[in-house]
Design a protein that fits this description.
Blueprint (H helix, E strand, L loop, with lengths): L2 E5 L5 E6 L2 H4 L5 H15 L58 H17 L3 E4 L9 H11 L4 E5 L4 H6 L6 E5 L5 H6 L2 E5 H11 L1
Parallel strand pairs: 1-3, 3-6, 4-5, 4-6
Antiparallel strand pairs: 1-2
Helix pairs in contact: 2-3
């Protein structure tokens, strides 16, 4: 069973925590991780790009010149793709880029991502993360005490003071334990999580 150190907000080690092997010590499946990341990025795409084909561009209803005898190449419309203001060949149209990934595959990918953080010693467990007021300076002090910069901070509940304090901190994202995803776990260098959030994650995915 994997064991990690537990720190307080001052960066002092206060104890250790045994992690559930079924969540934080599984075989890392890089293929499932790639699928989960691809699905996440695909779902973020708007898919609203659009250009007009020659059938949609206005004008060009008349043949610009007769078929033969002018010395020009034959042309049927001034809205053909080779003309200025003509239509676009194989023009992009609005589409949905999302694709389905099975629930068990998504869960296994998440476990693999969490395991990779443990194996790389990039997980930092806090006994608690509480702020009395919305103060970015206090938020950054906690990260500085842990000696982390680019961090994915996971809380056990929606703590308004902590979330708003970290909102404007560069390279930091603060979320609830129920909102974690593979992409963000791997995007940030450090996985900062409260002890209660670890228990919440294990309760859902164990």
């Amino acid at each position: 069973m994997a064991t990690v150190s537990v720190y307080n907000m001052q960066g002092t080690k206060t104890g250790t925590l045994e992690l559930n092997d079924s969540v934080f010590n599984v075989e890392v499946n890089e293929h499932l991780i790639k699928m989960a990341v691809t699905a996440h990025l695909a779902a973020k795409r708007q898919g609203t790009q659009k250009a007009k084909t020659r059938a949609e561009v206005s004008g060009g209803g008349i043949k610009p010149w007769r078929q033969k005898g002018t010395g020009h190449a034959r042309q049927g419309s001034t809205r053909a793709p080779q003309w200025t203001h003509g239509g676009v060949v194989f023009a992009p149209v609005p589409r949905d880029y999302t694709f389905k990934i099975n629930r068990k595959e998504r869960q296994q990918a998440l476990k693999s991502a969490l395991t990779s953080r443990v194996l790389e010693d990039k997980i930092f467990v806090l006994d608690e993360f509480r702020l009395d007021e919305i103060k970015t300076k206090k938020f950054t002090e906690v990260l500085k005490n842990l000696n982390v910069e680019k961090a994915y901070v996971v809380l056990d509940q929606d703590d308004k003071n902590v979330i708003l304090s970290g909102r404007n901190v560069e390279n930091v994202k603060t979320v609830n334990a129920s909102q974690i995803n593979v992409y963000d776990i791997l995007k940030y260098d450090s996985f900062v999580v409260t002890k209660a959030a670890v228990e919440a994650i294990e309760e859902v995915y164990a």
